Write the structure tokens for this entry.
Amino acid sequence: MALKKDINSTERLLNVIRGARTPLDDAANVIEKSPPKQKKTAKHSVNFPGWFAGKRRICVGVDVGRDVISFAKMTKSADGRPVLLDQKILSLDEGMDKSTDAFRDLLKETLTAFAGPLDRCDVWTMMNAAEVNVQHLKVPIVSRKELENVVYWTARKENPIDEREMIFDYEMQGEVNDQGIPKYLVMAYSAPKAQVESARKMFSSIGISPAGITIAPFAIQNIFRTRWISVAETAFASLYVGHDFSRIDIFSKNNLVMTRGIKTGISSMMEAISEYLAEFFPGISLPPGQIGKILQEIADDPRKVIETVEGIVWSEEKIGEMIAPALERLTRQIERTLEYYTASVGYEKVEKVYISSIMNLFCRPLKQYIGEQLATPSDMFNPFPAKNAPAQADSLGLAERVALVPAIGLALSDRKYTPNALYTYVEKNKEAFVKRVNRGIFAAFAAALAVCLAIVIYQGIATTHLSVKQKKLQQELSRYHPLLSKDKMAAMAKDVKLRHSANRLYAGRYKGMALIGELSFLTPDHVRLTRLQMALPVAGAAAPAKGTPQKEAGESVVIEGVVLGERSALDGLLAQYVMKLENSPMLRNVTVQKSSLVTFKKKDIVQFTINAKIG
């Protein structure tokens, strides 16, 4: 029962510490606990003029922790540099269940108020890094087509991957020389699909589709890759102290090369305090609220010394002594990790360690102890460097600054350089294929447009030439002034009419002679004409009425004659003669009126009569 009582006391003390507040120089910026259910919570935020954002997209990082939710909002300036617009830390009610509607309503209300119009925002969040396996591989240099398979099977060989339950992604990090052989350096990671889906569902349940889901080491990597914080060291480490665990991430040239979890956290330090009190002050039990109040007062004024009625002396030095066993375990694990990295992995020595943690009251003792005991230089991870720190950030305490590290790292995320569980190499390949198709379609349309433009230019040139030619013709036409009038046109028409009448008169007068000449030409030697009778209108007679055919006025001819030759050929010779007459342009409707066989001078001849119309 005593053991159970100790555990409960420790837990109560932890709850007090979780709800404790870190001092700020500006009382208006104090972080307050969220009230029950959906009541509005006091905000701890720093607002910047809205004109920084303009019409550029905003990236919002949301770090959902055990007891707090941290927010950070970034945009980019005209020259592409990241600009911090706002940050906020929201304390949650003790024991708030993140699967309840109350939590979802609180998250949606706070995020909407913090981020503004969500259609202009890319929301990035984190999942637990404990179950995410990060590998650094060296693979042979192969073609791009084969690279995916080589990376996948190399990673699967070192760490089995169940595709049904895990997602897999990788990132190229340049080339290295491995024992004289050039190889690709690849960072690969695998994460449980259930964990990714859980993080995504937290936001989709409130109507927000996150742009990316990553892990804390990659979020911290963003801070260095974007040069939000410029570091002079080539190899350095980031130590994150969480509630139940800690994690050390090692970076080389701003790229994550190693990450390791350590089973020592803030809860270990709280247990160390409980063990210290039980060992040196047996039988004395301080209420968790009183211990939390003492720790808060000392955090507010590190030089303050408090002595309780039970005779327990509290000071910053004494608190450091109480939590020393936990800090010693943490420091030893850090040293082993750094030694393993340098000796076994074969990289350069880590030159500096940057320390961050969740909201807690041990920042100063933590910094002091690790700085004294760790051989490698260390410093607190301040995500507000001088060149990027706004004036309002001066009011933030040390604990709040380091607690905002993951959220600011998330707000610096971009699909171009941040590993994203929602946008793996599979989605990247699909997007690249779509872009290639779009580029092909665009190129085809561009070619068609070029052809159309060429045609338009050609037609424009042709139109210009025609316009010039038209202008010349118009000038020539403007210089031409014919002397015409209505009376002159009437006189000319009368003259033409008179000429036409004269021509017709002459044609009628000489038509008979023309017909005789035509018949003389058409009549062969074996045909003798005996009589020719023509019916022609009298020259100068009145013209027939309009609409009456002139050919019906008696312009006809009767031809009588005989055909000489062999008796058997007489009919054929007559037929040939008739055909010649029919082909004449002066005769039409040629008919044989009569043909008979007679004897002349003891020879048989054919006597005929032919009628025809003239014309």
User: Anything to note?
Assistant: The chain is about 40% helix and 25% strand. The first strand starts at residue 58 and ends at 64. The two ends are 146 Å apart (CA to CA). The first helix runs from residue 2 to 19.
